Every structure is written in structure tokens, then in C-alpha cells.
TrEMBL record, chain A:
Source organism per UniProt: Pelosinus fermentans JBW45
Gene3D superfamilies documented for this protein: Glutaconate Coenzyme A-transferase
GO MF terms held by the record: acetate CoA-transferase activity
Protein name: 3-oxoacid CoA-transferase, A subunit
EC number: 2.8.3.8
Cross-referenced SUPFAM superfamilies: NagB/RpiA/CoA transferase-like (SSF100950)
Signal peptide as annotated in the record: none
NCBIfam families listed in its UniProt record: pcaI_scoA_fam, PRK09920.1
Keywords carried by this UniProt record: Transferase
TrEMBL record, chain B:
Keywords from the UniProt entry: Transferase
Alphabetical list of InterPro entries matching this protein: 3-oxoacid_CoA-transf_B (IPR012791), CoA_trans_fam_I (IPR004165), CoA_transf_AS (IPR004164), NagB/RpiA_transferase-like (IPR037171)
Organism of origin: Pelosinus fermentans JBW45
Entry protein name: 3-oxoacid CoA-transferase, B subunit
NCBIfam families named among the record's database cross-references: pcaJ_scoB_fam
Enzyme class: transferase
A Pfam match: CoA_trans
Family in the record: Belongs to the 3-oxoacid CoA-transferase subunit B family.
Leader sequence segment: none
EC numbers for this chain: 2.8.3.8
GO molecular function: acetate CoA-transferase activity
Membrane spanning stretches: none
Length: 215, 217
């Protein structure tokens, strides 16, 4: 079965009220073609798990501006004034999570772990309502793992088996999210035949990838 | 010398050869321009690489940005990785020093730099992980707010980024060390008096007997 598909077919897997992980860091490594198509399609009430909400005209920021998100689970919203505005008016729920915690929660979600123990956030409002666990005399916060219905991923190169190579700082959350969602859709700048990526160079094994569209 | 340059030059003197360092946006990043002769450090960028360097040509690579989203370059011998690895480096104690700005810092080493409730809520990004994991945490900031209000307090009033995490505070007026007994005034900037520091600081501090002038030129 070929994993190569069209944007339209791939986005059939993104339905209202779903939780969607989207790769990228301030837009670098975000699948812009998938985002643009999702904006055009207008699927609403999405919960988005991502590092940040980018800028109003870039990456995940476009989904904020088009009011398709009901909740954003992110580490940073400072570069997108529209996110702050919608948060203040109550239109958008924003859950802020320390970036390293968010990365590990997603990794844990894909790795079959119930959560992680981290010192990050102890003594701050991040710790409110969370369990503190003492290990060998040192305190840690229990942060539960995160999973999603769909992950939208950006890769530099994909082979037809779904093996992925990322490029420079566009890697960021993409390999982690590729492990943590039921359906993983990859926007790849380059698509090559099986065997054209050396197994030692693979950053995300193809078994995690369901669908590939040309970026 | 303007306030930012004083701070950046003094911060740069904290660099030791071979240090892995994460610099926040703004004044902290400026410190890299004043590396002492013979000292080289490896800059970590929390969005996923080691070997951060300024953009070295006119052509920007859209896929190579710093944690502020600005185009940068990567040194020969640099390394790129995902966000889990990036924060394993940060949280795991593999970063020797991090330098961050602050909205408030207090005499117990508490830091607040990620939100002003009801006004400004950018989010913590990687700051909470950085202060919990880096071996040395330096706050680099102008001593007071733009309207002259003190930022070095007895107790932070804003939501904390980290509790008891700050080791040194470097401002345009002075250098404080955060000790278990409270703040210790180590240095004052050229031309600045202890009285001036006291007037602009709410926190209590003790003057180190060997206090000296900031060695910056």
C-alpha cells in the first residue's frame, strides 16, 4: 500500500473536536501546505498541541487567526498577538507548558509511558494541582504523557516507506509527534524511493508514518 | 558605555573556555559579542542545536533559526537534534551556564520572567527548564524598569519561573551573588556608588569586604 497521497485525502483524517499535534518552532519545521489546506477546509474546534502559535501569518498562527482552535497546548504564545487576544476574551483556551516538559510528555506518549518526572516547574504555578513525587530525596513533578488523534509533520526527505530525514532546526518536535498520534501525516519537501535513504541516516522510522504528501 | 553594553561585557567575563552556554534573547545574546580573548564557548539553542553562530552571509536558511525565530548559522562541528534531546541537554545538567533576562528577581534567588497576569502572557518557553537544569544561572538585566522601579526585590510578586534558582545577578549598576544567606554585593559598575545601588534595590544585601569595581573597559 502506498503512503503517498493528496492533501485532500490526508486531511480527511482531521475531523472537528480532534486533538492535533503540529510540528514546528515559530514556524520553522511546520507543514505550511497542510496548514493552508486545513485553513481552507475550515475544520473547527481543534485542540492543537505544538511548541508555540507562531505568527498570525505563519504556521500554526494561521489556525488561530481563522478561529479553528478551541484549545492550544503550547509553551509560548508571545509572537502571536491574536492568541493572546483570544485567550483574554475566552474564545481560546491556552494551556502553557514548559517547553522541555512538553517535549517529554509527547515523547512519553509515543513511548508507552504514563508520564515523566521532572524538576521543571517545582515551586511555580505549573506545579499547581500536580502530584509531587520524591525520588531518592529529590522532588519531581509528575507530568502525564500526551497523545493526539493526528500529527501533522514536516520532513526534509521521506522515502516511500515513510522513513524520514529532517533538516537543521526544522526537526524540533516533529520526530516526537510522529510517535505520539494515531494518524501521522507528513509533508515532505522531497520524496524518494525505498532504499534511497541509508538506514543509518533515518531519523524517524517509516512505521510511524501513515501518509505522505509532497511539500 | 550604555547600560546594555556594560551588562553584556560583564556577563561575557563569566564565560569559561569550553563552556556549553544557553543565552536568552536580548542582552544575554549580546554577551557573545564580547567573548574574552582565548575563550571559546559552545552556544546551545533550545529549538535543537549546538554551535549557534550569527548569520554569516546574506542568504538566510529558513530552516535554521534561533529560539527567537531569527535566522542564524551553525559552526563547523555543530550538531542538530530534536526537542527532547535539546531539553535532555538542558535539564540533564549538560549546560554549564544560562543567562536570562528578568521581570523580577529576589534575594532568595527566585526568578520571574514569563508573565504579568492580565497584561503580558508570552509563556515560559524553555526558561523554566533552563533555570532548573543549567549548572549556573545568571540573570542579566537593567537594574530597574524603564520608569525606574526596582526589579531586585525582597520577594517576587509575579508568577515564578523558578524557585531559588538564580546564582548571579548582573546589571548596569552591579553584580550580586545569591548565597544561602542572601544577596552579596560583589562589584559595582565604574562610577556607581553603593548608595546608588541601595536606592535602586529593594532587596537586602551585604557588601562583600573585597568588593571591587566591575572590571570592564
Amino acid at each position: 500500500m502506498s503512503k503517498i497521497t493528496t492533501i485532500e485525502q490526508a486531511l480527511e483524517f482531521v475531523q472537528e473536536n480532534m486533538t492535533v499535534m503540529i510540528g514546528g518552532f515559530l514556524g520553522a519545521g511546520t507543514p505550511e501546505r497542510l496548514i493552508d489546506a486545513l485553513v481552507n477546509k475550515g475544520t473547527k474546534n481543534l485542540t492543537c498541541i505544538a511548541n508555540d502559535t507562531a505568527m498570525p501569518d505563519k504556521g500554526i498562527g494561521k489556525l488561530v487567526v481563522s478561529r479553528q482552535l478551541k484549545k492550544a497546548v503550547v509553551s509560548h504564545i508571545g509572537t502571536n498577538p491574536e492568541t493572546g487576544r483570544q485567550m483574554n476574551t475566552g474564545e481560546l483556551e491556552v494551556e502553557l507548558i514548559p517547553q522541555g516538559t512538553l517535549a517529554e510528555q509527547i515523547r512519553a506518549g509515543g513511548a508507552g509511558l504514563g508520564g515523566i518526572l521532572t524538576p521543571t516547574g517545582l515551586g511555580t504555578i505549573v506545579a499547581e494541582g500536580k502530584e509531587v513525587i520524591t525520588v531518592d530525596g529529590r522532588e519531581f513533578l509528575l507530568e502525564k504523557s500526551l497523545k493526539a488523534d493526528v500529527a501533522l509533520i514536516k520532513a526534509h526527505t521521506a522515502d516511500t516507506a515513510g522513513n524520514l530525514i529532517f533538516y537543521r532546526s526544522a526537526r524540533n518536535f516533529n520526530p516526537l509527534m510522529a510517535m505520539a498520534a494515531k494518524v501521522v501525516i507528513v509533508e515532505a519537501e522531497n520524496i524518494v524511493e525505498k532504499g534511497q535513504i541509508d538506514p543509518d541516516q533515518v531519523m524517524t522510522p517509516g512505521i510511524f508514518v501513515d501518509w505522505i504528501i509532497k511539500g | 558605555m550604555d547600560a546594555k553594553t556594560i551588562i553584556a561585557k560583564r556577563v561575557a567575563q563569566e564565560f569559561e573556555d569550553g563552556y556549553v552556554v544557553n543565552l536568552g534573547i536580548g542582552i544575554p545574546t549580546l554577551a557573545a559579542d564580547f567573548l574574552p580573548t582565548g575563550i571559546s564557548v559552545i552556544l546551545q539553542s533550545e529549538n535543537g542545536f549546538l554551535g549557534l553562530a550569527p548569520l554569516d552571509g546574506p542568504v538566510a536558511d529558513v530552516d535554521l533559526v534561533n529560539a527567537g525565530g531569527k535566522a542564524v548559522s551553525i559552526i563547523p562541528g555543530g550538531a542538530v537534534f530534536d526537542s527532547a534531546m535539546s531539553f535532555a541537554i538542558i535539564r540533564g545538567g549538560h549546560v554549564d551556564m544560562t543567562v536570562l533576562g528578568a521581570l523580577e528577581v529576589d534575594q532568595e534567588g527566585n526568578l520571574a520572567n514569563w508573565m504579568v497576569p492580565g497584561k503580558l502572557v508570552p509563556g515560559m518557553g524553555g526558561a523554566m527548564d533552563l533555570v532548573s537544569g543549567a549548572k549556573k544561572v545568571i540573570v542579566a538585566m537593567e537594574h530597574t524598569t524603564k520608569d525606574g522601579s526596582p526589579k531586585i526585590l525582597k520577594k517576587c510578586t509575579l508568577p515564578l519561573t523558578g524557585k531559588g534558582v538564580v546564582n548571579f545577578i548582573i546589571t548596569n549598576l552591579c553584580v550580586f551573588e545569591v548565597t544561602p544567606a542572601g544577596l552579596l554585593l560583589l562589584e559595582i559598575a565604574p562610577g556607581v556608588t553603593v548608595d546608588e545601588v541601595r536606592t535602586n534595590t529593594v532587596a537586602e544585601f551585604v557588601i562583600k569586604p573585597q568588593m571591587c569595581t566591575m572590571p570592564i573597559v
